[in-house]
């Protein structure tokens, strides 16, 4: 069984770790020759030829070449289906997709250029203005009015959202098999700084409606594989979908501590195997290692608290996800306390204060 | 941290799977360019240069170039220590090693050439004659008198052992850290056909003295890493050490279903990290996939019963270990029942009967 993965970042690398236990020939296409997944998978040079040679084609990330994915879809090999990739090409498309399924999201409007965006944002009072394409990890998002300079002069369409006061953020990671079987991993509560996930823990509580929204999303085009949906719980109690990630997801890295991770179940699903229900530890926390080179890592101390995963990226740039630490614990309180110690080991004394409370908006 | 592994078979491959989660640069030396571990690890061309460049050197198998290991030992990089590798170069040395530690083993004698071996075996009544070097998986072993033709004409020293009537075979897989901490995985009961492990399960019972013998063995030269010791329980009740394997071992493959496998703990130990105590499922069975090509594997049915691990060997030769299936269960009875189904899926209806009872001798 040959799998072609479009994109060779850490998500493909972790998928490849899990694939190495299964009888899967793992091929990766990424134009960047230093992509982490080449440490584990075989490199494809011509993506179209690789699509032809693969039994199944999947993607680890939204920012992949749509033409390659479209070709895989045409040959009946793309999982999940192309529709999910296409809505992710534009935040405006994604919002419209949620609206079409009557899934509540942050109130939004489309602006034709930056000047209209300013007018709409002005009308909302506080707003977040987002460039529709290519954004992730907080890139291309600007709080209005504070960061208005960031999108000044932008000529294309912009997404303008009301600024919502948020109590907490959580995500649901689910897997849907070809047979329609859907398994939900326990919900995770997530903590961001400047739009980048810094740590999370599971399990947390999620209201029934959140599961219902995920069902609507995956049934729309018969999703196959692992999917993540991020939610806001607003201070006024509204449950709002923020984003769908049609792939394995950072908020599901904690599932590596189960015996059927999001990565393994993604592989199982795309190859038409049955979804495996994992045995779950009482609690797991995950802490991202951002911007740190391996040499600066207090490995011994971290390993005493949890399991360190390293992505072997060529260079440690600021904010870059270099690895993560998973912490298994007897309770979420214990997991959070250990996560706090891991955060201060990685980032020093002050940093944890910033991230041990939910994101402000 | 750079690790050099001598030998590139499935044991190195599985070590590499676990290493890929840890920040370890995994280098493999094996003269065979199609060795399975090259699927995962980086290939070293010059073994002596690779020893110089590595932080730690270990081996996956006893049949490695002793000169390379000796060089690594001289540079203070070899773990476990050379002594354990050297005793494994000859079954006669190994027996003498057990005797020197007053560890009971099958009564044995050294024969100078095949004719003396016949005389000694004759005196024992039934015996097993073994060629001292290079034997594993039942190779180079002959039951006397039935298989006497196998060693006829052999000029070197031979090991002659009394034929012992065996009730069951079990093994202890343990890990010793540099700090002297020793962790024992639960004992496994093992089932062989013609000297090849076909399946096993854990946990089973092992008497106190078995643990004591392992302690003596690992303390002799301050072992570091994972070690396996195979035991016979004779019908007359004696506990006899059969073999020491100074490495990760087939009877410990079931530990991949814990959160700290024999492979991970070997890596942790050789890098001076603390041994991790795994959370253990109630029972696990392991079934070897011998001599079967991937095309002939009933993958869907196997995956419904357990987890399939595939070694990606170039060719499926008879008796060759091609992969294995791990089965997690709520009890050893359930594990054994599922193992039986896996055995008949892999080998057909008759095969299980041969191996669901302990080896005859």
UniProtKB/TrEMBL annotation, chains A, B:
Function (record text): Catalyzes the ATP-dependent conversion of 5-aminoimidazole ribonucleotide (AIR) and HCO(3)(-) to N5-carboxyaminoimidazole ribonucleotide (N5-CAIR).
Signal peptide coordinates: none
Boundaries of every ATP-grasp domain copy: 95-271
Catalyzed chemical reaction(s): 5-amino-1-(5-phospho-beta-D-ribosyl)imidazole + hydrogencarbonate + ATP = 5-carboxyamino-1-(5-phospho-D-ribosyl)imidazole + ADP + phosphate + 2 H(+)
MF-aspect GO terms: 5-(carboxyamino)imidazole ribonucleotide synthase activity; ATP binding; metal ion binding; phosphoribosylaminoimidazole carboxylase activity
Annotated source species: Pyrobaculum ferrireducens
Family named by the database record: Belongs to the PurK/PurT family.
EC number from the UniProt entry: 6.3.4.18
Keywords: ATP-binding, Ligase, Nucleotide-binding, Purine biosynthesis
Pathway: Purine metabolism; IMP biosynthesis via de novo pathway; 5-amino-1-(5-phospho-D-ribosyl)imidazole-4-carboxylate from 5-amino-1-(5-phospho-D-ribosyl)imidazole (N5-CAIR route): step 1/2
Name of the molecule in the record: N5-carboxyaminoimidazole ribonucleotide synthase
Binding positions (ATP): 91, 130, 135-141, 161-164, 169, 242-243
Quaternary structure note: Homodimer.
A Pfam match: PurK_C
GO biological process terms, semicolon-separated: 'de novo' IMP biosynthetic process
Keyword ATP-binding recorded: yes
EC top class, as a word: ligase
